[in-house]
Amino acid sequence: MNKDLTSSQVARKNVLNNPYALSQLETHLELGGLQFEGETVFTKLQAAEILAVDERTVDRYLTNHSDELQESGYRVLRGKALKNIKLAYVNDTNVVDISSKTPSLGVFNFRAILNLAMLVTESDRARAIRSRMLDVVIDVIAEKAGGHTKYINQRDQDYLPAAYIEDSYRKQFTDALRDCLSMGHFKYAVYTDKIYKAVFCENAAEYKKVLRLATKDKTRETMYAEVLKAIASFEHGLAVQMRKESERLGRMLRPSELDAMLAEAENNPFLKPAIEDARVRMASRDLGFRDALHDKLEHYIQSVPEGDFDRFLGEKSRALEEQLADAESLEVLKRLKDR
């Protein structure tokens, strides 16, 4: 996966969709600009000066990346908006590069000027801004996550219920393996790996290597709620199917028979949306939050949406210790237990 900001739109969006990093960047970069309609904006000439390029270079990037820059906040002022910015900045004492006769004016907001800085390749100034961006993004995520990102998944308010439910289905599955599969004790590790591979294409050892986990670290404690739910769906379905088939045959199942069930489950159209969602969430969030690349899930990588930054870094996200100390969270777990 290419993580170069100049050539990866996913990498650029992972910066631009992070409101906490943007706030810090606006403070630390001190790019100047004009205050207009409640935000900081930059004219084309100001953008060129900030990035140490000429205006023709800015025009070229506006042409070649028009959709992306407009999505980030670049816009052309006309009519009332143009009149208002002229009233604010065009007079005898406040000289800016806005002609009183211009029929339109293109302006970058702060998000769009950062986007432009991530695109421009022929500028040392742009390169320095990109380097500063990445430093701030890393610092902000680490700070919001309490100093490390290994368990950033646990800051999601959906994590505890998902982990509790998955643990319940895990017990049903291991009991079914014990009672219904003719295989040595190593069957638990073997079929845990096979379920992991069915859901996110990696076994436990591969997953730990990607996330740089220690041997003693428990893999499921680092997984996102959506991944745990997909695993629980597999475990529950296989547990029920194993018991029914073992009872029908009047004997324990052979590994080849369970393998056939697992392959059928992996291609089940009812499970496919949950599996696809789990792969996208794991691949995208681990790259965006943990700087961890799942090679086998590379084609599932998307930019991390702004809502996920709030979900894992915002006011509603809390460390697991805080959630466990919360009476409302404990009440949810109690209801799940009493089902």
Written account of the structure:
There is one protein chain. This protein is mainly alpha-helical and 339 residues long. The chain folds into 2 domains: 9-144, no CATH class; 152-337, no CATH class. 62% of the residues lie in helices and 5% in strands. Strands 1-2-4-3 form a 4-stranded antiparallel beta sheet. A hairpin with a 2-residue loop joins strand 1 and strand 2. The protein is elongated, with a radius of gyration of 26 Å. The mean pLDDT is 90.
Offer a concise description of the structure.
With 339 residues, the chain is mainly alpha-helical. It has helices at 9-16, 19-29, 44-51, 55-64, 66-72, 79-89, 110-119, 124-144, 159-180, 187-200, 204-210, 225-249, 255-266, 272-290, 306-313, 320-324, 327-337, and strands at residues 34-36, 39-43, 75-77, 105-109. The chain has a 4-stranded antiparallel beta sheet.
Topology, pairings included?
Blueprint lengths: L8 H8 L2 H11 L4 E3 L2 E5 H8 L3 H10 L1 H7 L2 E3 L1 H11 L15 E5 H10 L4 H21 L14 H22 L6 H14 L3 H7 L14 H25 L5 H12 L5 H19 L15 H8 L6 H5 L2 H11 L2
Helix pairs in contact: 2-8, 3-4, 5-7, 7-8, 9-12, 9-17, 10-12, 12-13, 12-14
